[in-house]
Amino acid sequence: MYPPRTTGFFAHPRVRKALLSIGRLAGKGGEGRVPGLTIALIAAQAILYTWVASGGPPGVEALIHWGAKSGPLVTDAGQGWRLLTANLLHRDALHLGLNLLVFAGVGTAVERSCRWWDYVALLAVSGLATMAGSLWWSPTVSVGASGWVFGCVGALLVLGRRARTGAKSARMGWFSGENALPTVLVFLWLGWTSVGVDNAGHMGGLMAGLLVGVLLRSRAWGPGGFRAVALVGLAVLGAAVVVTERSRWRVEHDDGFGVAVSLPDGWRREEDGQERRAFSNGLKGLGRATLTAEAIEAGEPGDGSAQAQHFLDASLVPGRAGPEGRTVSVGAVEPASLGGRPAQRIRAELDGVGGRTHLVAWFVPRGEWVYRLVFTWPQAYPAYARVMERMTADVRFEEPASLRVARARALLVPGVAGPLRELGHALRRWGLPADAVEPLASAVRLAPTQVDTRVELARAYFESGQVEAGCHSAAEARVYGPSDTGALEAGVRCALAQGDTAGALLRLEEARRVDPRDARLRAAEGALKAAVEAPGLSPQRR
Question: Which residue ranges does UniProt annotate as crossing the membrane (predicted)?
Answer without folding.
Answer: 117-137, 143-160, 172-193, 199-216, 228-244
